[in-house]
Amino acid sequence: MKRREFIKSAAAAGLALRFGPGALAGQAASPGGPSVLAAVEGESPVAITKEAIAALGGMNRFVGKGDKVVIKPNIGWDRTPEMAACTNPEVVRTLVELVLDAGAKKAIVIDNTTNQAKRCYVRSGIQEAVKEAGGDMLFVDDFRVKKMALRGEWLDEWEVLLDVIESDKIINVPIAKHHSLCRLTLGGKNWLGAVGGARNQFHQSLDKAIVDLAAFFKPRLTVLDAYRILVRNGPQGGRVSDTELKKTVIAGTDPLAVDAMGASLFGVEPRELPYLAMAKERGLGEFDLGKVRVETRKI
Amino acid sequence: MASQAAFFGLFLYLFFGAHYTGEDYIGSTVQRFFHFDPLLALITILSARLVYAWFAFSLVTAVATILFGRVFCGWVCPLGAVHQFASFAFKKTKFLRPPREDKASLAPKYYILLIVLVAALFGLDLAGYLDPLSFLTRSFALAVLPAVAEAFSSLSGVLYGVGALGPARAISQALQNWTINTTFIMGVSVGLLFLGAVALNARKERFWCRYLCPLGALLGLLSRWNLLKLRIDPEKCIKCGLCTQHCETQAHPYPEETWKSGECVYCQNCASICPTGAISFRLSAKPEKLSNVSNIALSRRKLVLTTLFGIAAVPFFKLTPARKRASLKLIRPPGSLAEDKFLAKCVKCGQCMRACPTGGLQPVLTEAGPEGFYTPKLVPKIGYCEYYCSLCTQVCPTGAIKKLTIEAKNEIKIGTAWVNKSRCIPYVLGKPCIVCEEHCPVSPKAIQLVEHEATLPDGTTAVQKAPVVDIEVCTGCGICENKCPVMDDPAIFVTSVGETRSETNRLLLDLSAGPSDDPYK
């Protein structure tokens, strides 16, 4: 129930944002209020993650007391952190800590991996980081995958991970990477790890699939790890020379704005990514960075 | 009993440890048990003409047997423990009532041993099928553990169904954490053979150990000179015959002169069942007559005949096309020796299949000829070879799969991927799909994308990126085939050609080692 109410209120907020920016006193759009998007650059992944969340008004803005929060990083590959195929474990660790400090009852970390699940969880460093931070690491459980109505434009229904959807808040924590089909994999594509079924068939119309999934999951917060990004041989790379250090974390409440800013790290214009334009048309957010309140910091 | 339970526990513990524990290198697993097995040591050395250093440990068992008889069978062997427990259970439940005196011939196991030895001389390794450690490990890896895991998985489903989320989740998470493979081609055959072997105990106590076990036979022959002898105190003996009736292995303790040292496994049943405590085991240096070792008619005539049959049987195993030309679907684990050496060393224990984190290693049925039954192959449709994993190479007990570091393993090619352009989505349907390319683990990728113009049924054309394999970079890991969205017959598939271990299953002559300047040098 809580989740459904949340989706409703989020949808209402979305409408309000579109049609009446002034109506949201004290919310994201009010002058002097917290930003919609924060990009922080610095040496420590922990510090820049903390700073980015602080710039958005702190974790208390997104997580309430007793919430069950799902944190969805990209743990898709059996690769160590320096390969930049999976989300930086320190970013995930920091978010788990922040979520629990904000009073959440549980911080659950889960991903439907492509390589063997345990190998991905262990070698990405994320399992250890999450456990140390007091979060719960869950493997995808066949009994906890259920076909649900997505009511997307392309995907009418699909198998969804119940452990993701049966939560109070979702935080999307993708890593910025090259991808040979959708060009860049950022926040939107990260949802492929929150569903089951024959995901490899999404690729026949990947942009549409990304938008349908993004419209369904609606994260409370998106934190894009761009500490080390993958610039070629994506989405898993394999050599350190396939990566570039950007030492940046981009966090925001508007998932499109986060992806748009992520794209700029690769020198890619947001309008070159079809899924962003499609998502904007569906009212999922704004990718024109000139239209959103952005805060950039360097620490 | 305590000793058997301890060794069986140790076996299970080591067996269970043979999986991805979270460490890249998992150290000692159940293969250590195999290294103490003189039968496997002997057969492997004979058939492969190679000495594997770890088998030096089997001398411990051999010397122990020479000194103290078949203590290995009665105190250590984990399959013996299974049979003894099953026999005990069948006796308690009255399914088995041992006769006063059993006169069945104990000879079959000696003939089995002889045939295995003769075959090994001709380079044919048959030991793995009936060696107790191989048999038990294979049964547990391919049938018992998977079945138990499936049962727990179902239980988890039921618990979810009734709303017991906590326990349901605990079970399913634990199963994934232990990476237990539950899918094996014809795993049912392995399971039924195991059940059959256990069920035989309802007919005779320790049926396997009495009549079938080639290792038991070998140890029986070694125990001829053993010092630990049965002694019945004639003053206490009341000639009740209980000792002979309840002897697990038909060693016939009463009367003392008929006791067969080569059959006794020192289980102490006779001593403990004797109502007057007349039976004890003492050290004595008197050797047994060979005929009395088992008291079987191991006559020269029959031995010669069995040997001749063994020799005659060997050529039948060679009547297979497997030796003429490589089989396309026989993708051996990385580090496997060249096929003839591999077959001569593999004992079909299934440890590699247990350890494989994706479950891609499967028992071979026909591709490798008759002697290759139950040897491992990679079936990419079921599971692929994980790029950063070398577990199968670490757990092999005989070195049929050479132990490799992960770096060394990634230098090895186990096969080559091929695109079936008549099934591939961009090639045929003109729709986008790069799934194989995105999963290719090497960098730069062995699958590259090129623009391809597809002609559709209505005559229009569509241009898409389509996969092309760079066979010099491809390792044959099979993840492309595994992840291909064309479900029934993947549009990209791996065959064994180009595998590093073979000098004949080659594709291009100039793939490795640059040519020397002077071809006549």
Which keywords apply here?
heterodimer, A: 299 residues, alpha/beta, Rossmann fold, 10-stranded mixed sheet, two-stranded antiparallel ribbon, 9 helices, B: 521 residues, mainly alpha, Alpha-Beta Plaits, 2 domains, two-stranded antiparallel sheet, 24 helices, 42% helix
Description:
The complex is a heterodimer of chains A (299) and B (521). By secondary structure, chain A is of the alpha/beta class. Chain A has nine helices and twelve strands. Chain A has a single domain, classed as 3-Layer(aba) Sandwich (Rossmann fold). The longest helix of chain A has 18 residues, at 2-19. Chain A is globular. Chain B has 521 residues and is mainly alpha-helical. Helices cover 42% and strands 8% of the residues of chain B. Chain B has 24 helices and eight strands. In chain B, strand 6 and strand 7 (461-469) form a beta hairpin. Chain B is elongated and about 100 Å long. The mean pLDDT of chain B is 90. The interface between A and B is large, with 33 and 38 residues.
* Main beta sheet strand tally, sense and closure of chain A: 10 strands, mixed
The geometry of chain A reads as globular
Mean pLDDT of chain A: 90
Whole-number count of domains of chain B: 2
Category from helices, strands and their pairing of chain A: alpha/beta
Total helical segments of chain A: 9
The computed structural class of chain B is: mainly alpha
Give the quaternary arrangement of the chains: heterodimer
Write down the overall mean pLDDT of chain B. Answer: 90
> How would you describe the shape of chain B?
elongated
Beta-strand percent range of chain B: 5-15%
